[in-house]
Each structure stands twice: as C-alpha cells, then as structure tokens.
Amino acid sequence: MSATIYDVAREAGVSMATVSRVMNDTAVVKEETKKRVLEAIAKLSYRPNAIARGLASKRTKTIGVIVPDVSAAFMAELVRGIEDIANMYHYHIILCNSDGQLDREKDLVGTMWEKQVDGLLFMSPRLQQEHIDTFEEAQLPIVLCRTDDPEGRIPSVNINNRQAAIDVVDYLVAKGCKSIAFVGAQNGLRTLTDERRVGFLQGIQRNGIDSQLIELPNETYATALPILKNAFKQGAPRAIFTANDELAIAAEHAAQDASLRIPEDIMIVGFDNTKLTEMSRPALTTVTQSMYDYGAVAMRFLTKLLSDEPISTYTVVLPHQILEKESTAPRLIR
Amino acid sequence: MSATIYDVAREAGVSMATVSRVMNDTAVVKEETKKRVLEAIAKLSYRPNAIARGLASKRTKTIGVIVPDVSAAFMAELVRGIEDIANMYHYHIILCNSDGQLDREKDLVGTMWEKQVDGLLFMSPRLQQEHIDTFEEAQLPIVLCRTDDPEGRIPSVNINNRQAAIDVVDYLVAKGCKSIAFVGAQNGLRTLTDERRVGFLQGIQRNGIDSQLIELPNETYATALPILKNAFKQGAPRAIFTANDELAIAAEHAAQDASLRIPEDIMIVGFDNTKLTEMSRPALTTVTQSMYDYGAVAMRFLTKLLSDEPISTYTVVLPHQILEKESTAPRLIR
DNA sequence: CTGTTAGCGCCTTCAC
DNA sequence: GTGAAGGCGCTAACAG
Fold first, then answer.
1. Which of B219, B212, B168, B172 is nearest to B193 (CA)?
2. Which chain A residues have a beta carbon less than 8 Å from that of B54?
3. Which of A71, B187, B192, B293 could form a disulfide with B80 if both were Cys (CB 3.0 to 4.6 A apart)?
4. What ranges in B91-187 are assigned the alpha helix state H?
5. Nearest chain B alpha carbon to A4
6. CB contact under 8 A, B83 and A97
C-alpha cells in the first residue's frame, strides 16, 4: 500500500489539511512549511488518490467521449484532437464506442454519469429526441461534436453541412460539370449524410443541372465499390460527390476500373479531409477542415463550459472549405 | 443532487447494506425484499456512484490504455478491439496518447495510478529499462501489446516479428524475387521495425540474394513517398518489403510514378493488415492478423490477470501469416 | 437473511 | 497560517 496524505502530514509534521493545501494550492501556506511538505511528498513518493479526491471534491477531471466507432479513420483523428486538448487542461478521457445504436448511446450516458465524469463529448450519426431527454436527465455538461441538434438545445460544434454541399455543387459546376452524382447511405434517419444530400439537391436545383443519387446500405469502402462499379456501367456522371472520403476512394477505384480518367472524364470530391485524401491516387479533393481540429475545438468548448468561461454562442459553426487536390484538378507533375 | 444508496434504503425500508447486496449480487437476499429494493431503485432512478464505489472497493473497473497515437489507422483499430472486450467484461478505458515519448509514457503510468485504474494496457514503439522500472514502481497489472519485452519480464501479447519478416523473404524468394529492399525508420532504438529488419536480413542471408535497406527518418506516407521515388530512380529492386502498410502504399505510389507495374515489375508487401490494404490499388499483400484481434486478445489477457484466472504463459505469441493480395499476385479480374 | 459500524483517502468549512 | 472534524457514497466485515 502506498502513502496517503496522512503519511505525508506525519512525515512533514503538519496536519493533513496543510498537505492538501499545498497540493492544491488552495490557500497560502508559509514558505517554510510548504517546503517541508514538498520534501515529505518527494520522500514518500506520494501520489494523491484521484478517486478519493473525486469523491470529496465531486470533480474527477475526466470527461466521457462517446463515438460511434474509433476505428473509422476520421473518428480516430477526431479523438486525437480531443485527447490533446483534454490533456492540455489536465483532463483524461474515457472512450466509448456506441456503434451509433441509440440503446447503447443512452446506456453509455448513464454509465458515464456513474463514473462521475465532469462532462461529455458526444458524437452520433443522428440525434433524436431520446438523446436530448437522456442528456437532460444526466444533468451533465455536454458538447455535441460533428452531431447536429437542429433545435440548438445542446451546445455543439459543427460545420454547415448543407451549405458545404451546395458549395461543392457550385464548385463542380464552375469546373464545367453538367451532371453530378451524390453517393451516401440512405437510412431514413436524420444524419450528416442527409444534411449533405439536401444541400446537394439544393445546389443541383439552383444550377439547373442533371443529378443522380446513389444510395448505399452503409458507408464503407467495401460496400460502395461494387455498387459504384455497377452504376458506372450504365454511364457515369461527369462528377461524383461522396458523403465521406472513404467512399470517394471507392469512387476513384470504381472509375479507374471503368477506365475513366480522373479528373478528365470524371471528377471526384470527398468529405471530411482525412489523411486518406493524401494517400490516394489521385489525391482527393475534399471538404472541411481537419477532423483533428474538429475534436480539438469541441474539447476546448467543453473546458470553457466546465470552467464557466464566458461563451458567445452555444452552437459553434466551424468554417468549411473545399480543398482542391488532384481528383478535380489537372494532375501535378510528380 | 441525485439519489444515494441511503435514499434507496429508506424508500425500500431496508438498510443500505441490503441495497448494496442486491446491487452487487454479493449475498443472498430474500426475493421479496430484493423486489422492494429494485422498485425503490427504479422509482428514484438511482445510479450508484462509481467513484464512491471505487474508493470503498479499491477497484474502479477502468483500465488505462496508453498508445503512441490513436490517429494512426492501425492503432485506432487496435483500440477498438480493446474497447470491445473491455466493455464485454464491464470495464471502461481511459485512453492516453504518448507519442512514444518516454517522459510522457512514464508520466502517464503515474497518472493512471492516481486514477486508480485496475490495470494497464501499454503500447510503445520500443520498450526500455526505464519503462520496466516505472511499471514495477506502479505495481499495476500490465499487459504490453504489440510491444516487446525481450526479457519477458512483463506480460505481453505480440507476434514474432523477426520470424514474420523471414517468412516474407522466403515467400518473395519463392515468387522468384532475386533482390528485395526493406523500408523502415532507423532510429537506433529497439523498435518493431528493427525486429522486422533483423528478420529481413536473416532471411536474405539464408536465401543468399541481393538486398537493400531504405532508411527513413519516420514511418509516414508523406515522408516515405519522395524518398522511395528517389530510390527507384537508380534502379528498383524486384520486391519491396515495408515496415508497415502505410509505407507500402507509399511504395506502390512511388512504383507507379516510376512506371513500374505491380506485381509484374515489382512486388510489394506491407505489415499489419490494416484496412488500408483493402483500400489500395493494387490491394496490398500484408503480414499478420488484424489489429482489432490484437487489441482484443490483449484486453482479454488483462481481464484474466485481473480476475486471477489461470494463465498458461505470460508471453502470448500470436500466430502470423502472410495474406496474399494483388501486390504480389496476378491481378484479379475486376 | 439483514442491520450496524467502520473505514476508503481526500476536500472543506470552521475555529484557533 | 494551521489544525480539527465532518462528510463525499459506498463496500465489507461483523454481528445478530
């Protein structure tokens, strides 16, 4: 068993209260006794027990992070952003995967409450009323990240997915595309993809060009590839806009299999700006800022909430932009 | 403020000890009183405070996971494997990134101790004596994952990287390759890459063929690409074996830029079997089982340690295998 | 089967 | 500036 605050107090010849004070810098302690305490701490290599501290202070310095699936490339980057900022503010994160299942998400919020996390960072493909109810019940500071509450009841950091999709259409039209297909999963729920699809359709309508919707059962590379290959057999559109980068890579491969040149015959635009966009051939034009920044901003937002720093808005809308790479631009000389 | 165990006890007309008993199923309680307690719990929507429980029981049901960087694709998959199994055994994970820096790693072990984690899953590119010392000091059940302790002092789950590399050389030789290059970072420390390099060299020697070592300052796609392109200018080997999948993709692209056909002109073999291998063109031949399984096995191992289940060996060596895909085999018809 | 009683290790008023 | 004392919410003997 290791040293407790009492051991340190005895060693330093002071009371435990004083030890607590120097540990937490919570009141002025005479320089000399402070020194004695510090020496005792070092001598016993004392480490405060965070659990006991949590019980007494009701603050655990840990925040819960609920994501659908870390193993998705962009989620991992996002989590890294969260962790870096958390670390900067001396928080730790408990990471949970929900697979986007409502039951599990609700359960996790409860479990995180049990663990007495100081706050919650929540990501989900779609937010339903039940989520909101669960959040309210939990009475925890919560920030949604890359997850939209249309009513703006919950603090969130997000980009304007609809507008971003419109911008992509405009961008492709400016590039001379007269027909554009949108690729994403259709599941009847309000998802990020739906937001993007809506924007896409708005953009199409505004520009008065041809469009096509390619619906997927899910948004993975493996699922998308055969479906896209098949779609291209009956004539490919001039451009493809996918709901995320992974799908865009599937589109690239499907196009290549159909002997279509990128970007000469078909342009491709992804979404999320993950590392994948740099590791694909041709490099992928994509939308928005890095997932890392996304997570970082969300975590910073939460720390503000937790320390009662003034907040200007509870619905942070991150700027988005289109990063032009090879899949829509003349090939660079290699 | 939410309900405590006292509130439930009062509501059910029993003592808090009984409530605790039904919560933890730690002793037989009469069916009827149990029912009353359960009703009280439901009525007050009582949730036990895990922190208080942790303080009293000295077990927090959380384990610390220290990784170099979750945002690396394979690490994310590995972490997912860990989390799934952790969840299965009702553990939660605190995830920390160390960037492979010794100081930070040591510090994190200490902080995890403060948080009273029940155990630690530790990943690092290289293990030094200082790590061992830190672990011993912490007195925590620890399992190394994808990290080797050559002396076998710390429980670990790993593959035989050296043998795997030998197997790759044999495999490529059987394919008719007379010259093979190894690509990886050289940093003077004992790393996974070094293990693989050693195996590579042994294989080369045994087969008596030509070899080349291409040393990188780090193991990222962006770093590798230009270096490999340059290397290929002065004549490419018949095969490339890289320390990980990401580098293998760089090799593919470098080869393609040099107008080399894969696998006709040059074969490429990666390492780790990440999702990337399926998302590359040509699909990448790679070594070992999935990172997900890796994490899952390691976590399961830790749960055994934590529950004193019998353990046959403290050094779990996972079987490895070569998964042949397009980068070393005739192209499949698409 | 159930209740009583100590703590777990620390924070936090209060007095001094 | 420092000490004493009372919790935080729960588990775990120990009685009954």
1. B219
2. 51
3. A71
4. 102-114, 129-138, 161-174
5. B114
6. yes
State the CB neighbour count (10 A cutoff) for residue A229.
Answer: 17
pLDDT for B35-72, tens place per residue?
999 999 999 999 999 999 999 999 999 999 999 999 98
Does the pLDDT at position B104 exceed 80?
Answer: yes
Contact list, A55 vs chain B (CB under 8 Å): 49, 51-52, 55
Strand C nucleotides within 7 Å of a protein CB: 1-5, 7-13
Of B50, B110, B222, the CB nearest to A115: B50
Task: Report phi then psi at A188, rounded to 5.
Answer: 80, -10
Tens of pLDDT, residues B228-246: 999 999 888 999 999 999 9
Closest by CA to B296, choosing from B62, B74, B77, is B77
The yes-or-no verdict on residue B188 having pLDDT over 70 is no
Determine, for residues B279 and A49 on separate chains, whether the beta-carbon distance falls below 8 Å.
Answer: no
- CA separation for the pair A325, A265 (Å, rounded): 16
> For residue A5, what are the CA distances in angstroms to B54, B55, B117, B189?
18, 15, 19, 39
A84, A115, A278 member nearest B92 (Cβ): A115
By CA distance, what is A226's nearest residue in B? B334
Task: Return the SS3 of B210.
Answer: strand
Long-range contacts at B286-290 (CB < 8 A, ≥ 24 apart): B286/B245, B286/B248, B286/B322, B286/B323, B286/B325, B287/B164, B287/B167, B287/B168, B287/B320, B287/B321, B287/B322, B287/B323, B288/B159, B288/B164, B288/B318, B288/B320, B288/B321, B289/B159, B289/B318, B289/B319, B289/B320, B289/B321, B290/B77, B290/B81
Q: Which amino acid is at B41?
A: I
Name every chain B residue with its beta carbon within 8 A of the beta carbon of A85: none
Q: CA B99 – C1' C11 distance (Å)?
A: 34
Look at residue B214 in the predicted model and tell me its pLDDT.
95
Q: Considering CB atoms only, which of B49, B51, B94 is closest to A92? A: B94
CA distance A48 to B66: 20
pLDDT digits (tens, 9 = 90+) for A151-199: 888 999 999 999 999 999 999 999 999 999 999 998 765 578 888 999 9
Residue A281 sits at φ, ψ, to 5 deg, of -120, 120
Find how far residue B14's CA is from the centre of its chain: 47
Query: Which residues from A are below 8 Å from B228, CB to CB?
Result: none
Q: What gap in Å lies between CA B259 and CA B255, rounded to an integer?
A: 6
Whole-angstrom Cα distance, residue A168 to residue A174? 10
Between the CA of residue B195 and those of B188, B245, B285, what are the distances in Å?
12, 16, 19
The helix/strand/coil state of B119 is: strand
On whether the CB atoms of residues A115 and B50 are closer than 8 A, the answer is yes
Q: Which residue has the tokens 């996974």?
A: B192
B91 vs B189, residue with greater confidence: B91
Q: Using the C1' atom of nucleotide C2, identify the protein residue whose alpha carbon is closest.
A: B18
D11 closest protein residue (CA to C1'): B56
Burial (CB < 10 A; 0-12, 13-18, 19+), residue B286, is: buried
- Could you identify the residue written with the tokens 């509450």? A149
Find the length of chain B: 334
Which residue of chain A has the CA closest to B225? Answer: A279
Q: What is the C-alpha separation between B40 and B15, in angstroms, rounded? A: 13
Q: Which of A5, A46, A70 to mutate to test the interface with B (most CBs of B within 10 A)?
A: A70
> Looking at residue A304, what DSSP letter applies?
H
Best probe of the B interface among A4, A23, A51, A96, by most B CBs < 10 A, is A51
**At which residue do the structure tokens 């302790």 appear?**
B149
* Residue A41 CA: distances (Å) to CA of A8, A54, A146: 6, 20, 44
